[in-house]
Amino acid sequence: MTARVTAVSLSPSHNFSKRTQFEIRLIAGLGVEGDAHAGEKVKHRSRVRANPDQPNLRQVHLIHTELFEELAGKGFAIGPGEIGENIATAGIDLLALPQGTRLTIGERAVVEITGLRNPCLQLNTYRDGLTEAVLDRDAAGELVRKAGVMGIVLTSGIVRPQDAITVALPPGPHLPLRPV
């Protein structure tokens, strides 16, 4: 399967869920135009309280729709935008990408992956037990965070459902994704 966008979402306010759109505009150095989390400096409330001057490494939240299917098997009916992502994808293992991977989305938008979304307790507020449902353990017992990846916008562009996604890995050695 070719990697592609399945849905795009944004919210102008700090709501947990984001509304699906026909398209979103990514703005280099800022994020999703019109989204509450767009900006050069961090916009996530908990991170602003900790240090409002830190760079915004969470301009765009991407999540794999395969997670929605996995969650459905656990009794959670989750659709695009409901758990705060801007771009839902299919056919790409986002969690396996190394730091610095660049995704060309659509005709020209480029997003650089900065790290993992750290699932927060707001997931449980949305649906009881959802935080635990997006966490797992690997064979070595290490925590696996499945709630998507975060990135910064390097090149502006329009992103629509069905847009292709091209992956460019950074030069090695590759660093695994960590929460940002």
Automatic annotation (TrEMBL):
Residues 19-168 form the MOSC domain. GO terms for molecular function: catalytic activity; molybdenum ion binding; pyridoxal phosphate binding. Gene3D superfamilies: PK beta-barrel domain-like. PANTHER family: METAL-SULFUR CLUSTER BIOSYNTHESIS PROTEINS YUAD-RELATED (PTHR36930), MOSC DOMAIN-CONTAINING PROTEIN (PTHR36930:SF1). This is MOSC domain-containing protein. It comes from Elstera cyanobacteriorum.
